[in-house]
């Protein structure tokens, strides 16, 4: 179920399915880089203004699914206009800044994005552009990212399946007049 917070800016209602904290795992595979499974935590928040604040942290996972080390992190802002056009700005820890443009699909919670501009520090790895697809499927957030470099044509390099993290304090607050059967621990 998608909840729309009462203090969400009205322009952002079509993006409400993104709100919250998400965790899960995925696969990273790109020529010249480490092929690995990774864990991910993503957060989409709002403060009443007409954009969502976005953070993503990924880390390499070992064979047993334990964190080994950070993989990459990014932060950014998501906006949508009345014609369902989505604009995203991101900054990655490796020294890359991206402007993404795309749109929210008609009748389904799916967003297709493509880079409109890329800037990178001299120390950042080669990168010339990318595509991303985000979808809300059966209450989960899934995404796939493609990227291109001067040597490698556009190809998939990361994808993940994320589940929404629910704080028990949030749902326990809605429970009223129940006997003290342990639920009081969450109040």
TrEMBL record:
All residue ranges annotated as the THAP4-like heme-binding domain in the record: 11-164
Please provide an example of a Pfam family that matches this protein in its UniProt record: THAP4_heme-bd
Q: Which InterPro entries match?
A: Calycin (IPR012674), Nb(III)_bact/plant (IPR022939), Nitrobindin (IPR045165), THAP4-like_heme-bd (IPR014878)
Q: Which CDD domains match?
A: lipocalin_heme-bd-THAP4-like
- Top-level lineage group: Bacteria
Q: According to the UniProt entry, where does the motif GXWXGXG sit in this chain? A: 20-26
Concerning its family, UniProt says: Belongs to the nitrobindin family.
Protein name (record)? Ferric nitrobindin-like protein
């Amino acid at each position: 179920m998608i909840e729309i917070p009462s203090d969400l800016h009205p322009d952002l209602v079509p993006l409400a399915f993104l709100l919250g904290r998400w965790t899960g795992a995925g696969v990273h595979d790109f020529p010249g880089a480490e092929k690995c499974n990774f864990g991910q935590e993503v957060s989409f928040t709002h403060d009443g203004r007409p954009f969502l604040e976005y953070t993503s942290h990924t880390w390499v996972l070992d064979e047993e699914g334990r964190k080994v080390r950070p993989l990459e992190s990014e932060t950014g802002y998501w906006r949508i206009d009345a014609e369902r056009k989505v604009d995203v700005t991101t900054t990655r820890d490796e020294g890359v800044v991206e402007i993404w443009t795309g749109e929210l699909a008609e009748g389904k919670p799916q967003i297709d994005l493509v880079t409109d501009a890329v800037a990178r520090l001299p120390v950042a790895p080669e990168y010339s552009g990318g595509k991303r697809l985000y979808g809300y499927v059966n209450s989960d957030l899934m995404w796939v990212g493609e990227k291109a470099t001067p040597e490698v044509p556009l190809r998939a390099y990361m994808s993940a399946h994320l589940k929404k993290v629910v704080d028990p304090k949030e749902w326990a607050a809605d429970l009223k007049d129940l006997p003290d059967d342990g639920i009081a621990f969450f109040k």
